[in-house]
């Protein structure tokens, strides 16, 4: 394709007046071809020419931003959209609390802020890379469309972060923007920055778990960045959150529909005991204990994304007014945290105990707790599906100390209940708690594509409502367009 | 007289994923949550619809007609949405056609000929309603305004195309939009809203355009119709809606559709026909149009209709004022086609739609009764059954 003479001012929908911001426009124009190359190399494999019924953000007005139409993914209008500016907005926490929110980067925080933007930005393309092979095994056109929607929106979120880098961070920002396209998920030489974003997403249950757990970490991070005293970052993240909600939806309903199908199949076959794994698997559905194991894996990987429980970096970000707490402005305290403490789960004399730490350095822990609460509510919804189907089984989030690679518990083995085990004991029970190779092989064996409109793979139930009110047999993806 | 009924906005707890987007979007604080559910406060919600499109799940788009609104405590306790209760009013038990009483009253009047509760066809798509209202109208641009009737004809019926640019304005065939003529009346009050049926199909006047067409007849002292008919290309018009949730095109390609209209009542049927032609050209169901006018010169879309192949659309034109010829009304043609009509009415996939002047209702009803009698069918029972199953629809004015 030719990318010369593209009218970028119309190709990039934006509400930041790019047309009159020549320098940034030029920088984005320079970056755009590399982005398209990246999308074509690393975006959804095998469906770049298909027509996908996608939602495009064309404005931040609630009525205008969700526009649905058939689009070829490389032609998706990746825009730069910031939530409307509130001219009265203040810095709402930290040592600058009460100052007017910054419209430019404060010189002393330049490096810190750039790091925050780069870390957030790096996760966006990473998940597209991790999910690029999934289109081929989609359980329905509906699910395939949802996958691609998630992918193009992650692409837009990359644009959002790159805009900030190009507009506010000069040459350093441009170099960082280029590096975001250079690193690749799982690459030995240039991996993505965070661990969970270098793990493979081998099957659709993993994808649903990823969007539920890992994208929910993204939601928490975006929400605390939306509190930032640096107003352009705040406005960018606020708008990204409305898109992120769709990703939560894909995850929560994807797992929910998987559970529902499993329960239905068990009831129909008269299987009462969810632990009769082989019998359940013979029905061509995923048994509930395996779903619990998948959940254990993804939840624990996501907890690692919050970093060390006690972190001076987090304290500095907060003090500087760059990154707040989840829903900072709804919390009733001094928003400075100078003397406050916060209970942190730690390993004390070989036991897990709660220890009060200065609230400022415990901010990662606090955000992680908010995350856990948010996850638990979703898991409860899943349990309702199981309960409603009349199956006697409950899903549970594993203990914080379970299967961790970062923070207090990285050097110990704990069961999902929080019981500490020796290495030898752990090796014996590991496959009871985490998906084994055989579990993975079984799930993979179910991943047969279904591409007839209105039909779904046997292992997953149909959704209750269509996207954009479309009827059940709507052709969400025209594959051979 | 019953207590005044209210249309209450509710969130389906079974579908909601608690993403907080609606609460974040609502600027007047009508949406709140507890550990269990997200809920809408009926005392605060003003139907601005801002929360509808950002919702990722569709859980937000639920409505119930209630005598007494569900409290927040009720809503917090739900794990499913309650079914629509049988409220003591004939018109209110069915689908919600509009959220404002002004529009609701107009549609209720137009549906009177049904003689019962309006029900949407089972296979119809779910309509969006009330995305825009008087307080927050959409602004459309006139991109076409053509006279449809012959220059020699007395009546001036026009085909008007409204383009919505970047504003979403999702409509289904059979829905209406509201137009308010600018200015105020002698008492300084804004003019009443007028409803116009959409005459194009859901994907626009041409496929994948964000516009729609209206069929508007200039009424001698009609404020709104004269306003619309005089609009030049490029003029901007405030539009509300879309409205209507029952007089809709069935998506089932096997559905037979009998359409009966006079004058501008043809508007929705132009949409229906276009939908069939574009989306299901090989549909198994029959499409029949009984279209009455005084003379061919006064029949809207006379020319274009000639070009529609009879395989797609069976056309029966009925003229009541052609010199030297007997007066033929739609009911006469229905009787003349008795065998075909009776066969279709005996089929459970057949839908009947009547749209036009109120004066046609009785004649058409009697004609159907005659046709049925001849085929040993009971029209009164059949009509009620078809209506309850979303297969009989009336919109007259």
**If strands are numbered along the chain, what order do they take across the biggest sheet of chain B?**
8-7-10-5-6-9
Strand order of the largest sheet of chain A: 2-1-7
CATH class of the largest domain in chain B: Alpha Beta
Q: Within the CATH hierarchy, at the fold level, what is the topology of the largest domain in chain B?
A: Rossmann fold
- Count the DSSP helices of chain B: 10
Run of helices and strands of chain A: HHEEHHHHHHHHEEHEEHHE
Number of discrete helical segments of chain A: 13
Relative helix content of chain A: 40-55%
CATH topology of chain A: Ribonucleotide Reductase, subunit A
Topology overview:
The complex is a heterodimer of chains A (481) and B (397).
Chain A: H1 8-11, H2 22-42, E1 51-56, E2 67-72, H3 110-130, H4 141-168, H5 170-182, H6 204-225, H7 231-268, H8 277-281, H9 288-304, H10 312-319, E3 341-348, E4 351-358, H11 363-388, E5 413-414, E6 420-421, H12 423-433, H13 437-446, E7 477-478
Antiparallel strand pairs in A: 1-2, 1-7, 3-4, 5-6
Chain B: E1 6-10, H1 21-25, E2 31-33, E3 38-40, E4 62-66, H2 72-77, H3 101-110, E5 138-147, E6 157-163, E7 176-179, E8 194-197, E9 211-217, H4 223-229, E10 236-243, E11 256-262, H5 267-279, E12 287-293, H6 302-307, E13 314-319, H7 330-336, H8 338-345, E14 350-356, H9 360-374, H10 379-388, E15 392-396
Parallel strand pairs in B: 11-12, 11-14, 12-13, 14-15
Antiparallel strand pairs in B: 1-4, 2-3, 5-6, 5-10, 6-9, 7-8, 7-10
Helix pairs in contact in B: 7-9, 8-9
């Amino acid at each position: 394709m030719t990318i010369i003479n593209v009218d970028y001012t119309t190709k990039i929908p934006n509400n930041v007046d790019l047309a009159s911001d020549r320098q940034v426009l030029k920088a984005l124009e320079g970056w755009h071809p590399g982005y398209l190359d990246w999308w074509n190399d690393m975006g959804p494999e095998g469906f770049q020419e298909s027509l996908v019924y996608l939602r495009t953000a064309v404005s931040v007005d609630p009525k205008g931003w969700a526009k649905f139409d058939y689009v070829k993914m490389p032609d998706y209008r990746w825009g730069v959209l910031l939530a409307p500016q509130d001219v009265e907005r203040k810095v709402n926490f930290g040592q600058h609390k009460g100052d007017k929110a910054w419209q430019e980067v404060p010189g002393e925080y330049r490096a810190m802020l750039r790091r925050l933007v780069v870390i957030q930005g790096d996760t966006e393309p990473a998940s597209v890379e991790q999910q690029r092979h999934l289109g081929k095994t989609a359980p329905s056109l509906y699910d395939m469309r949802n996958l691609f929607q998630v992918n193009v929106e992650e692409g837009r979120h990359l644009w959002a972060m790159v805009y900030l880098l190009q507009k506010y961070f000069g040459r350093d920002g441009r170099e960082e923007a280029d590096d975001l396209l250079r690193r690749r998920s799982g690459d030995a030489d240039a991996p993505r920055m965070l661990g969970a974003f270098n793990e493979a997403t081998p099957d659709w249950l993993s994808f649903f778990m990823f969007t539920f757990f890992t994208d929910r970490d993204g939601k928490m991070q975006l929400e605390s960045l939306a509190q930032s005293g640096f107003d352009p970052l705040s406005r960018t993240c606020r708008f990204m959150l409305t898109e992120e909600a769709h990703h939560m939806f894909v995850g929560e309903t994807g797992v929910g529909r998987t559970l529902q199908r499993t329960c239905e199949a068990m009831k129909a076959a008269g299987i009462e005991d969810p632990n009769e794994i082989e019998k359940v698997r013979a029905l061509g559905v995923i048994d509930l204990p395996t779903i619990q194991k998948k959940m254990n894996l993804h939840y624990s990987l996501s907890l690692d994304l919050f970093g060390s429980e006690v972190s001076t970096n987090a304290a500095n970000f907060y003090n500087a007014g760059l990154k707040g707490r989840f829903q900072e402005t709804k919390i009733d305290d001094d928003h400075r945290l100078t003397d406050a403490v916060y209970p942190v789960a730690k390993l004390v004399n070989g036991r897990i105990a709660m220890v009060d730490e200065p609230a400022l350095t415990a901010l990662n822990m606090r955000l992680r707790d908010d995350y856990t609460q948010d996850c638990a509510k979703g898991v409860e919804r899943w349990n309702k599906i199981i309960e409603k189907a009349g199956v006697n089984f409950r899903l549970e989030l594993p203990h914080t100390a379970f299967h961790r690679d970062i923070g207090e518990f990285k050097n110990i083995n704990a069961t999902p209940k929080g019981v500490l085990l020796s290495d030898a004991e752990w090796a014996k029970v590991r496959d009871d708690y985490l998906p084994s190779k055989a579990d993975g092989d079984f799930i993979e064996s179910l991943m047969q594509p279904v591409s007839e409109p209105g039909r779904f793979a046997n292992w997953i139930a149909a959704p209750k409502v269509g996207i954009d009110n479309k009827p059940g047999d709507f052709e969400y993806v025209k594959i051979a367009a | 007289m019953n207590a005044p009924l209210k249309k209450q906005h509710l969130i389906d707890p079974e579908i909601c994923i608690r993403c907080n987007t609606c609460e974040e979007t609502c600027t007047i604080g009508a949406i709140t949550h507890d550990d269990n559910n997200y809920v809408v406060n009926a005392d605060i919600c003003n139907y601005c619809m801002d929360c509808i499109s950002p919702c990722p799940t569709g859980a937000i788009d639920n409505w119930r007609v209630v005598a007494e609104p569900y409290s927040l405590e009720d809503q917090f306790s739900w794990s499913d949405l309650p079914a629509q209760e049988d409220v003591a009013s004939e018109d209110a038990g069915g689908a919600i056609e509009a959220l404002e009483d002004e529009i609701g009253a107009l549609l209720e009047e137009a549906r009177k000929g049904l003689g019962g509760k309006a029900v949407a066809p089972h296979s119809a798509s779910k309509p969006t309603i009330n995305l825009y209202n008087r307080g927050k109208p959409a602004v459309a641009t006139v991109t076409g305004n053509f006279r449809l009737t012959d220059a020699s004809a007395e009546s001036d019926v026009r085909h008007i195309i409204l383009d919505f640019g970047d504003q979403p304005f999702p409509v289904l065939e059979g829905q209406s939009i509201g137009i308010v003529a600018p200015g105020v009346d002698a008492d300084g009050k804004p003019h009443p809203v007028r409803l116009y049926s959409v005459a194009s199909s859901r994907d626009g006047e041409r496929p994948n355009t964000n516009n729609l067409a209206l069929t508007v007849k200039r009424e001698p002292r009609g404020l709104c119709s004269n306003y619309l008919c005089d609009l030049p290309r490029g003029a901007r018009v405030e539009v509300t809606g879309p409205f209507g949730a029952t007089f809709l095109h069935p998506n089932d390609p096997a559905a037979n559709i009998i359409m009966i209209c006079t004058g501008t009542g043809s508007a929705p049927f132009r949409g229906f026909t276009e939908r069939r032609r574009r989306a299901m050209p090989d549909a198994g169901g029959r499409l029949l149009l009984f279209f009455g006018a005084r003379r061919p010169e006064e029949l809207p879309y006379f020319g274009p209709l000639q070009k529609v192949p009879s395989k797609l659309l069976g056309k029966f034109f009925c003229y009541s004022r052609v010199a030297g010829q007997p007066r033929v009304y739609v009911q006469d043609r229905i009787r003349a086609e008795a065998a075909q009509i009776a066969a279709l009415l005996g089929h459970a996939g057949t839908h009947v739609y009547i749209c036009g002047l109120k004066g046609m209702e009785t004649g058409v009803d009697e004609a159907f009764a005659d046709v049925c009698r001849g085929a040993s069918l009971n029209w009164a029972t059949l009509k009620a059954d078809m209506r309850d199953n979303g297969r009989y629809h009336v919109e007259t004015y």
